[in-house]
Amino acid sequence: MAVPKAAVALRHVKSVMVRLCPFQTNVETTRIFLEHVNSKKARASNINCVVTTDVRHDGSEPVVDIMFADGDRLIMKGANLTAAEMLSAFNSRCIAKDHKAEEKTKKKGA
Amino acid sequence: MHFERQKLMALTEYVAPNPAVPETCITPYIKAVKEENGYAKLLRWQVAETFQDSKMIAVCQHNFTPSEEMLLMRHRLRKHNIHVKFFPNEIVRPYLSVSKYKNLLPLFVGCNLMLVSPEIKVKEMLQILKKVPQINLLGACIDNTILSNQGVVSYSKLPALEITQGQVVGTLSLTASQTCALLQHSSVHLTALLDQYIKQQSGGAGETDGEAGEGQAELGPAKSSVGLDASSLTTSCT
Lengths: 110, 238
Known about the structure:
Distance between the termini of chain A: 45 Å
Number of strands of chain B: 5
Low-confidence stretches of chain A: none
CATH topology of the domain at 42-158 in chain B: Alpha-Beta Plaits
Helix content of chain A: 25-40%
Order of helices and strands of chain A: EHHEEEH
Shape of chain B: elongated
CATH class of chain A: Alpha Beta
Radius of gyration of chain A: 15 Å
Shape of chain A: elongated
Structural class of chain A: alpha+beta
CATH superfamily of chain A: Glutaredoxin
Structural class of chain B: alpha+beta
Strand order of the largest sheet of chain A: 2-1-3-4
Mean pLDDT of chain A: 86
CATH architecture of the domain at 42-158 in chain B: 2-Layer Sandwich
Largest interface: A-B, 19 and 19 residues
Strand content of chain B: 5-15%
Distance between the termini of chain B: 138 Å
Number of helices of chain A: 3
Strand order of the largest sheet of chain B: 2-3-1-4-5
Helix content of chain B: 55-70%
Strand content of chain A: 15-25%
Largest sheet of chain B: 5 strands, antiparallel
Mean pLDDT of chain B: 84
Low-confidence stretches of chain B: 217-224, 233-238
CATH architecture of chain A: 3-Layer(aba) Sandwich
Oligomer: heterodimer
């Protein structure tokens, strides 16, 4: 599985909630995503971001719920997603928010 | 050309031999047998030993933890004789698929660590893991029973074995003691009533001494016989 080596940046993220049932067979990608979100660089990018893991045993699908600082919410159901897809979806939204923030600062400066 | 010459030429025509079959088509391809890595053998032996010697095996998701926190966690766990083990999934999965811990296979995906101990100290382990939010408990195998996260938490809330054994013994003996009390109940009640009657009679003895004395004499043997019956019943119950 080709997982991007680029670090996950949690600058615009308020909280990350990961719910999974570890005895199921479709949680591998969600667990890999969780490892990336908990990596050293990711944690260093935003110390205030809260990452919670809800480990259950009810046969439910693995779900990643990301709350952004500007109120946006990204819910990813990782049962049929690869880790690369989840990370690219998350990173694309982070990059979009970076652009928005840059435009705002330019407008304020001008 | 003359016919004989033609015939001779046809007879002596060069017939090229069939090209030989190349060696690569004949000789079978022998795959070189890869010798097992000695380190892999050692790890496999260690995994087998760990699973055999431990009564409590907890599997946790290992996200990045700063080395200081990891060191502190290992120190606190070591105080309770709980060891932190890391094994590669490629070594553990084949061992698990053959052993009785088959149902733990789905847990060994991604980055894991194992907390193993020959004793069962679930409460202490959970208290220490609470302080390290990066380590998430996925499941455990305690006393040959596979438990989920909630199972481990409820196991920690159970009372000690001696207390539960005492409760069971108490419940079992309760029925026998109740039977005894039921059997004795009628005779005990009768003796109490007679006692009260005697007291009432003796209270009225100040008015009529002779009659009270006769009444008491009559009651005396009856009371003693009732008392004897009650005592025989009690001895038969116990």
